[in-house]
Amino acid sequence: MNQTTRKVIGLLGLVIVLLSMIYYTGVFRSHYTFAEDLLLTGLSPVQGFFSRIGRKTYCFFQGMFDYERVLAENEMLREKIAERDNLSYKLLELQKENHRLREMLGFESSVEYSLLPAEVIARDPSYWFETITINKGYDDGVKKDMAVVTSQGLVGSIYYASKNSSQVLMLTDSRRAVSALVQRSREPGSIGIVEGYPEKSEFLRMVNLPPDANIQKGDVIISSGLGDVFPRGLVIGHVTEVEKDQYGLLQQALVEPAVNFNRLEEVFIVIEYNNEISGGPEDEPDNETEVETDEAENGGEDGEDDEGEILSGT
Amino acid sequence: MEGAYLNNKSHAVPYLIVIFIFIIIIVLQGSFLSLFLDGGIIPDLLLIAVICLVFLWGENRGLIVGLIAGLFQDLFFGPAIGFFTLSKMLVAILAGAASREIYRDQIIGPMITVFFATFLHEIIVFFLSDFFWGIETGFYYSLEKLFLPKAIYHFILTLFLYPLFYRAEQKQFFYPSFK
Q1: Closest by alpha carbon to B31, among A123, A262, A168?
Q2: What are the structural domain ranges in chain A?
Q3: Domains in chain B, ordered, with CATH?
């Protein structure tokens, strides 16, 4: 056997070993390998450091080159805050009334969350995999498949957790799909699947909608709670277009995400939630980490905790 | 003594330096560049670095460099261990074969190699992703809208990065003396 043949055989062996590793670690494993855990634990503070520097530099240059726009935006936001302040007082009254009526009827909050804030420290630079890295891991109580949200809506779910950082699979990733429904109609027959839309990366796509599903442009899409990964009622986005699918049998909708996936800085991990509609026992958050207890219902339009942050829709 | 060390090209120190450079590139790529280029194509600086080192170190050591680069990319961001290891290793082998025929002191050779290597790398990643997880993006769409802009991007970036690696090699940066 000459040297070239030996080289080719060695190379083929290496390719087979690597393919087997991809198959095993990409399909079967439920957590990081020891080497990944060790490396990510050590380097997550470094990633966080560079991420913060990057953010500050970006803000500095953006402010410098876009000064007039930033000024106008600032003015507009001040007006919006004043409007929102007014609205929040009204909302508070409605929340109290809702709470009172629910107590009278013996109902409980439909969805209750316990949220853990986390900072985004890195993002997968390749375009095939839409993942971000956050600075909270299993030491903070984070586990695989926990939902990740922002105040705007749903981001994705935890893919793997290391000691002090976790990888989040965003909704735009082709490996992630979420069962969703139309907030306006809330018909069980209008449940579809929301997934990434690689050819229009700034949009999501809602597929598998029955031909008679009550859905139209402008509708808000929320998570259905089916599948036990995402709590019910989290805002995903709003419909910009409804059309027949490629076979003409079902409907599909183009959804503009509520969250800007390209500019995520801070997210919340849903540590615990309860999807009960009525009657069931109310869960108490039992983790010892820094958590905020939020309650929301009807897609985040109402809540009953005065101190909690409301995960509201668009 | 120092001469013997420099002649012993299988020494571990250059690889340790390369690992350190790769980690910096991965961290910068994921946390710094992704902020500035949000929504756009983020260059694969690791791939460019691998091709540059293949040209400077030859195909055998280039293969090891490709393996190391891919492995570290897998550890940080990879969907599975072995995914980028395989793609970067295969690209390093082919770039190594090309480097035998191309003069390394002229920058255009590495630039053209990086251009084609980017296509090859992305095609390997495309088929591996499709095979293991299934992707819905069409191949021809990806070729035109994703691979081609990235290849052009890398071609231009090599103009700036190859001289850095070339100079580092000339200045014995990868072979420090510990006197």
Answers
A1: A123
A2: 70-173+262-276+286-296, 177-259
A3: 13-170 (1.10.1760)
Q: Could you list the pLDDT tens digit for every one of the 314 residues in chain A?
A: 688 888 889 889 999 999 998 888 877 777 787 877 887 888 788 778 877 877 777 777 777 777 788 888 888 999 888 888 888 888 888 888 888 887 777 765 555 678 899 999 888 887 778 889 999 999 999 998 899 998 888 999 998 888 888 999 998 887 788 889 888 877 666 788 898 887 777 889 898 888 888 888 888 899 888 877 788 888 899 999 888 877 777 888 999 999 988 878 889 999 876 655 444 334 444 443 343 444 444 434 433 333 333 333 33
B138/A21 Cβ within 8 A: no
* Helix, strand, coil fractions of chain A, as percent rounded to 5: 35, 30, 40
Q: Copy the structure tokens of residue A189.
A: 């027959």
Write the residue in A35, A125, A128 that is nearest to B129 by C-beta: A128
Q: Does domain A177-259 have CATH number 2.40.10.350?
A: yes
Closest CA to B141 of A200, A126, A27, A277: A200
Listed by number, the residues of chain A in 212-231 with a beta carbon closer than 8 Å to a beta carbon of chain B are: none
Q: CA A141, A143, A149 angle in degrees (round to 5)?
A: 90
Q: Quick check: B163 contacting A, CB < 8 Å?
A: no
Which CATH code for domain A70-173+262-276+286-296? 2.40.10.340
Distance from CA of B131 to the nearest CA of A (A): 10
Only one residue has tokens 């630039």, namely B111
| CB-based contact, B3 to chain A, within 8 Å | no
Q: Tell me if residue A227 falls in helix, strand or coil.
A: coil
Report the distance separating Cα A278 and Cα A63, nearest Å: 49
Does the pTM exceed 0.80? no
The ipTM value here is 0.85
Among residues 60-119 of chain A, which lie with CB inside 8 Å of chain B? none
